[in-house]
């Protein structure tokens, strides 16, 4: 049951981390990234798989002996009870495929594979039995084809069957091995056992084993039956030559157990000595593969986050200057436009006077020739009522407004176009010059947004061309001034009367008041646009600050995933005596772990989420950095839920153990040559970290470890962060901290100061 419980742990780990990955894939900037289909299928298969023991063998007798040994009872007949022996190639055998499952009551039934149970009278149904009757094991000659393909399902109340199912495959003459394994390709974790009863495998048996490996690429455990081969060495050499088994497994380069290989075990009497470790390692390797895949996927996302942080940091270095420049230029633009609006009042008045003077005769002529609409006039031109007189006056006013609108608006538009080109155009060109060397469009988001704000605030061209806003207010003012003229009903609506009305209307217009009204509207528009621009700019700055997201949360997920993987593959390390204490943890001796020795064990109990995040970042950076001679190697990490009697959770970081730290070495005495070499080693380590974009931020004597040749290595990346993610936090050891650290604005030169 222990391997099965470990498999359940792996399933839970896979499901938790798989949900984390899915949530990452559908969030924000990662919507374009998805889990590769083959990786997703593999993880889903691992989560949904259950252990399934597949019993194969050279003949039915060997398979039945192996099954009885697994269950610890004589459930299948042996020897002469079995009946006729299998032929040299199994051609004479007629015994069915057997499936063993768990149930409260013992029962036998025939069922089509993966379908339904057949109504069939079995010999076991006729009375009590301890051994499955031979008649039920064999296919009868009179059975129809459907019953010949049916498998015998045996339901038992057995502890082993609570955890796994067992299938005993038939001989090749009854059903080819590839057909028998067709239903075992998905949804199961096969544990393949092969019972050996002869000195060598026949060509047909070797062919069947090759097909098994093609169908199910899992290791095979070969077990000797009691009447096994007389020369086990010959069988071992044959299996080695056919590459059906491998040499001793050993450990991989990382210290974890190597991939599970097929083995030739001992006899059935010692099956537990072989089957237990074989099954446990097989299940553990499944967990390691799944968690390794999860870790690789999560590291890809984490690297993406870090790369985005570097891009963002570059953007944040440029954007504040760009924003400050934009704010400054916008202020100059606003002040200039306000000053021009004040100065333009006289120019606008002169322009209106000039326009009216130049158009006066044409306006009077057009007014005299105006034909009124919707007014019934008498033949001699006398009006019918005062209402008609007002309508006539209104139409004359509209004529003047329309023609003046066209003339004056054209001149105003050309003037405003000049202002726009002189000021807004200048600012846009400045922004464009800042962006022309940028290859990625994502870094231009702020400038594009600012240009949109500027266009929305100062694009007066559309206003004048569309005749809305200022233009409408301008001509409404004209009409209001004209309406204030006191008219006397004329004796008749003649051409002279129309000219008189038009002339009085034109002379009543005040160019000074119109110019003042236009400038007032222009200043109001500038003020509102300036305030909107400033508010939008503040919002852009706030968004830029908030873009420094919680990268460490993703590191925690990676840390947990890898810890489960390492704990399963290498086990929990054993603590030795205490070597030293730091601000956040205790360092212990560890004789060996994961095939490596000697080791040091750093035990850290994170008190809150912030320390979890910092520890996760330390784990990620130390683990993901390329191996370097001047950095202490991290072998692995394990999360210990039983630390301090289960009252707290500790993270155990297993790393290489060195001889002493630099502080102890200096006290013991070091020659000048050794000191210079140590200084060069530390510089080399710092340069390597900086080349990877990382700041250590806690370079000190106790964080420099020495080996027995007094060569130095840097350790403790607890405060290490990418330069792109430095948020101004004050960390480190005070006596070694650079002064600029206390300002919150610093770069990698703080490591040089500490050195």
TrEMBL record:
GO terms for molecular function: ATP binding; protein serine/threonine kinase activity; protein serine/threonine/tyrosine kinase activity; protein tyrosine kinase activity. It comes from the Eukaryota. One of its GO terms (cellular component) is anchoring junction. The keyword ATP-binding applies. Pfam families: Pkinase. It is an enzyme of class 2 (transferase). It is found in: Apical cell membrane; Basolateral cell membrane; Cell junction; Cytoplasm. InterPro entries: Dual_SerThr-Tyr_Kinase, Kinase-like_dom_sf, Prot_kinase_dom, Protein_kinase_ATP_BS, Ser/Thr_kinase_AS. Its EC number is 2.7.12.1. The keyword Cytoplasm applies. It catalyses: L-threonyl-[protein] + ATP = O-phospho-L-threonyl-[protein] + ADP + H(+); L-tyrosyl-[protein] + ATP = O-phospho-L-tyrosyl-[protein] + ADP + H(+); L-seryl-[protein] + ATP = O-phospho-L-seryl-[protein] + ADP + H(+). Residues 573-755 form the Protein kinase domain. Keywords: ATP-binding, Cell junction, Cytoplasm, Kinase, Nucleotide-binding, Serine/threonine-protein kinase, Signal, Transferase, Tyrosine-protein kinase. ATP binds at residue 602. Residues 1-27 form the signal peptide. This is Dual serine/threonine and tyrosine protein kinase. It comes from Sinocyclocheilus grahami (Dianchi golden-line fish). The lineage of its organism: Eukaryota, Metazoa, Chordata, Craniata, Vertebrata.
């Amino acid at each position: 049951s222990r391997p099965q419980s470990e498999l359940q742990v792996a399933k839970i780990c896979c499901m938790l981390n798989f949900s984390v990955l899915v949530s990452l894939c559908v969030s924000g900037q990662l919507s374009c990234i998805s889990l590769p289909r083959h990786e997703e299928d593999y993880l889903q298969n691992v989560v949904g798989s259950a252990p399934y023991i597949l019993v194969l063998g050279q003949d039915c007798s060997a398979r039945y002996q192996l099954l009885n040994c697994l269950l610890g009872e004589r459930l299948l007949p042996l020897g002469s009870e079995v009946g006729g022996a299998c032929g040299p190639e199994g051609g004479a055998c007629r015994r069915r495929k057997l499936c063993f499952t768990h149930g409260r009551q013992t029962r036998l039934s025939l069922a089509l594979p993966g379908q339904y149970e057949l109504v069939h009278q079995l010999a076991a149904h006729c009375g009590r039995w301890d051994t499955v009757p031979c008649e039920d094991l064999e296919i009868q000659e009179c059975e129809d084809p459907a019953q010949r393909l049916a498998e015998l399902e045996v339901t038992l109340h057995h502890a082993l069957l609570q955890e796994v199912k067992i299938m005993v495959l038939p001989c090749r003459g009854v059903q080819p091995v590839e057909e028998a394994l067709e239903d075992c390709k998905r949804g199961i974790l096969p544990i393949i056992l092969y019972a050996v009863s002869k000195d060598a495998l026949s060509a047909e048996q070797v062919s069947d084993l090759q097909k098994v490996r093609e169908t199910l690429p899992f290791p095979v455990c070969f077990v000797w039956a009691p009447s096994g081969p007389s020369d086990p060495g010959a069988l071992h050499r044959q299996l080695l030559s056919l590459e059906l088994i491998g040499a001793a497994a050993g450990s991989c380069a990382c210290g974890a157990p190597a991939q599970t290989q097929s083995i030739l075990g001992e006899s059935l009497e010692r099956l537990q000595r072989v089957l237990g470790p074989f099954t446990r390692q097989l299940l553990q390797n499944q967990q390691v593969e799944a968690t390794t895949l999860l870790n690789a996927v999560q590291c890809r996302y984490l690297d993406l986050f870090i790369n985005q942080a570097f891009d963002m940091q570059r953007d944040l270095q440029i954007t504040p200057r760009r924003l400050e420049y934009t704010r400054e230029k916008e202020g100059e633009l606003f002040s200039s436009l306000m000053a021009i609006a004040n100065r333009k009042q006289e120019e606008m008045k002169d322009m209106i006077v000039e326009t009216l003077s130049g158009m006066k005769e044409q306006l009077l002529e057009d007014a005299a020739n105006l034909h009124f609409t919707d007014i019934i006039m008498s033949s001699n031109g006398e009006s019918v009522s005062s209402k008609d007189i007002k309508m006539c006056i209104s139409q004359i006013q509209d004529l003047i407004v329309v023609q003046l609108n066209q003339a004056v608006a054209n001149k105003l538009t050309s003037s405003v176009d000049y202002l726009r080109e002189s000021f807004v155009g200048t600012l846009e060109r400045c922004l464009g010059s800042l962006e022309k060397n940028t290859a990625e469009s994502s870094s231009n988001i702020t400038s594009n947004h600012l240009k949109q704000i500027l266009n929305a605030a100062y694009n007066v061209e559309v206003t004048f061309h569309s005749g809305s806003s200022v233009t409408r207010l301008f001509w409404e003012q004209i009409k209001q001034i004209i309406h204030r003229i006191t008219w006397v009903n004329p004796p008749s609506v003649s051409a002279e009367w129309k000219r008189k009305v038009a002339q009085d209307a034109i002379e009543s217009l005040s160019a000074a008041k119109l110019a003042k009204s236009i400038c007032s509207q222009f200043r109001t528009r500038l003020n509102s646009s300036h305030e909107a621009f400033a508010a939008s700019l503040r919002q852009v700055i706030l968004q830029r600050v908030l873009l420094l997201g919680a990268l460490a949360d993703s590191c925690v997920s990676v840390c947990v995933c890898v810890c489960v993987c390492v704990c399963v593959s290498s086990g929990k390390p054993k603590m030795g005596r205490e070597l030293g204490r730091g601000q956040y943890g205790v360092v212990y001796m560890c004789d060996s772990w994961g095939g490596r020795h000697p080791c040091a064990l750093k035990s850290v109990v994170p008190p809150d989420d912030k320390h979890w995040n910092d520890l996760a970042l330390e784990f990620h950076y130390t683990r993901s950095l390329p191996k370097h001679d001047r950095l202490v190697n991290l072998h692995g990490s394990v999360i210990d839920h039983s630390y301090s009697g289960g009252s707290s959770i500790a993270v155990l970081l297993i790393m290489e153990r060195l001889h002493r730290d630099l502080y102890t070495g200096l006290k013991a005495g070091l020659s000048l040559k050794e000191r210079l070499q140590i200084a060069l080693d530390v510089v080399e380590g710092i340069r390597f970290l900086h080349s990877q974009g990382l700041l250590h931020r806690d370079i000190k004597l106790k964080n420099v470890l020495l080996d027995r040749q007094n060569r130095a290595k840097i350790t403790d990346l607890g405060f290490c962060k990418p330069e792109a993610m430095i948020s101004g936090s004050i960390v480190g050891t005070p006596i070694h901290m650079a002064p600029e650290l206390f300002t919150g604005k610093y770069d990698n030169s703080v490591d040089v100061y500490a050195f």
